[in-house]
Amino acid sequence: MSAPPLLARQLVRVCCPPRDRVYVLGDLDAEFELRGCPAAWYWRQAVRSAGALVMMGARRGDWEYGLFAVMLASAAPAILMEAWWSFILSRIPYKAGAVRGIDFAVLSLAVTMVLGFGAGVICTTRGLLWAIPAAWVFALLAQTAVHNLAPTWFGAATLAAIAASVTLGAWLRRYFDGGQLS
Amino acid sequence: MAKGDFLGEFEQMILLAVLRLTDAAYGMEVRREIETRTGRETSIGAVYATLDRLEFKGLVRSREQVANDRPRKLYRVTAEGNRALAATHKAAAAMWDGVKVPGV
Known about the structure:
The complex is a heterodimer of chains A (182) and B (104).
Chain A: H1 6-15, H2 18-34, H3 39-60, H4 63-91, H5 102-123, H6 128-145, H7 152-177
Helix pairs in contact in A: 1-3, 4-5, 4-6, 5-7, 6-7
Chain B: H1 9-21, H2 27-38, H3 44-57, E1 60-67, E2 70-77, H4 79-96
Antiparallel strand pairs in B: 1-2
């Protein structure tokens, strides 16, 4: 009797919320044996299950998913905008005077707010107490990592944008869960 | 009836599978029941995610058991779940009434 494909099993393991892992993996392995160990079937199940399992953990507000969403929301804008700015600079023949203007700041804040909103939806209002400070820490670490010496006003605006968007996302999630908008 | 009182297509299938399986309504069995009866290949992740959502809505409840030497979750449809199924079935039957579709 062959074992399930290791990578496929790891995919399910990583995507599945911890409290359901034993049930999901147990069922998958049991049916794998029942069917005569078809690797292709196991892979199809793993790939098709991954998204649904991640959404299950996110919907429940399991802290691992909230933390990942918060990290993405706060660190990603700094890294993405830095990468985007480097790309633009590489296309400009004469870089003198190429400064990041107000449009750069607005775009960066907009990206932060969109991602922060998504993180708030996942964290729920229960997670706000840790989510906002964690987001601030990730944002500051990311800006340090990309050597982005942002003006103080921009740093403060970023932190305020994170707090506002995460809170809004969590509040809207609570509203939808309560069914008040249906 | 409010919009949220009706079940989605897959939610219906899950609840009906749980009702059919009675004392054997575990995740794997629910998945196999849907696949056998409808011919629709369903992922175990989608089954568990839907069961989790139904439990959140109060339409099913789960209980951990040890079966076949491993921990398993047994699901049961609640009274609220039965009401939701009945309402959805009644609404669908009302829409089908008098409609002729080839093959049905």
